[in-house]
UniProtKB/TrEMBL annotation:
Record carries keyword Transcription regulation: yes
GO biological process terms, semicolon-separated: regulation of nitrogen utilization
Organism: Actinomyces glycerinitolerans
Protein name as catalogued: Nitrogen regulatory protein P-II
Record bears the keyword Transcription regulation: yes
Highest taxon above the source species: Bacteria
SUPFAM superfamilies registered for this protein in UniProt: GlnB-like
Keywords associated with the record: Nucleotide-binding, Phosphoprotein, Transcription, Transcription regulation
Length: 115
């Protein structure tokens, strides 16, 4: 079992969720996040005053999946989260980690049956 974690642009959420459903994902956890990578923030103007925004708003998606579905999930996120025109700085990042055990609280099921 794997935990696939992705950081994406907020405006790409609907496209990513649709792609995950087509890939057979059974669920996703979404959290608001802020961060700075190569994008290094940006400058905004509010009421005529210019100020620096150091941390850019993003969304963090977490998908618990079987080993067999990992590549389909990563492909779905990667394709749907990429900006039109071949991608742009700040489109996001995806990583996966091994999961040793999963327990469904309601039923006590363990392992892949609990996903």
């Amino acid at each position: 079992m794997k935990l696939v974690t992705a950081i994406i642009q907020p405006y790409r959420l609907d496209a990513v969720i649709s792609a995950l459903e087509l890939a057979g994902s059974s669920g996703v956890t979404i959290s608001e996040a802020q961060g700075a990578g190569r994008q290094k923030g940006h400058t905004e103007v509010y009421r005529g005053a210019e100020y620096q925004v150091d941390y850019v708003p993003k969304l963090r998606l977490e998908i618990l999946t079987t080993d067999a579905q990992v590549e389909a999930i990563i492909g779905a996120i990667s394709g749907a989260a990429r900006s039109s025109g071949g991608g742009a700085l700040g489109d996001g990042k995806i990583w996966m980690t091994d999961v040793e055990e999963v327990v469904r609280v309601r039923t006590g099921e363990r392992g892949e049956a609990a996903i």
